[in-house]
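Protein record
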Amino acid sequence: MDTDLTESIAAFRGAFPALSEPPLGEGDASLIEVLKTKFSLPPRYCKFLLTCEPQDDAELVTPAERLLLLSADQLDEEQKGFATDDSGTLIPHPSTNAWRPSWIIIGHSSLLGDPYFLEVADADAEGDCPVYTAMSGTEAWQKQLCASSFAMFLRILAVSVELAKDFDLDDYDQDNEQLFRDSLGPKIRQYDPAAVKAGHWT
């Protein structure tokens, strides 16, 4: 496993320090291989699932978001109605305003229901790809960058949860949320300036 991904996974694991049994485990290699082939999943994301697969309660909570990441056995079902049809077959030619088959959902907001997804069409030479989100319930899906790579996505989640320790997680007051976002921006900028510029976290 490459150094960047190893460090990002270690930081992500650290987001669950208070739990004796973190909601993370080892994924099923045979299932992950099937998913990798079907959805063109990048190697770094597959390595994450193999070594640090989110379980059903792997939710990361901050004053601005409650983000639930998917386990490998949830991935196929979660794509239905998005990248795949009801039978699980990839939809090859979406309309202009529709979901793209290269957008693979890996989690969603428990607050708003918005999906978080990989853009596998933009996979790089290191076996990684950007992570985006898009607002649900609109006429067209408008993707917004969350992280320049999946490794950076893990790092941003870890930084977010670490900062959230200094905030009241039960207070979803707008002022509390904005103060958190204002504090989070400079911390994310150290790792992924493009993600800060995109504005999703801030």
Strands lie at 24-25, 53-54, 59-61, 66-69, 103-109, 115-119, 131-134, 143-147. The chain has one domain: 3-198.
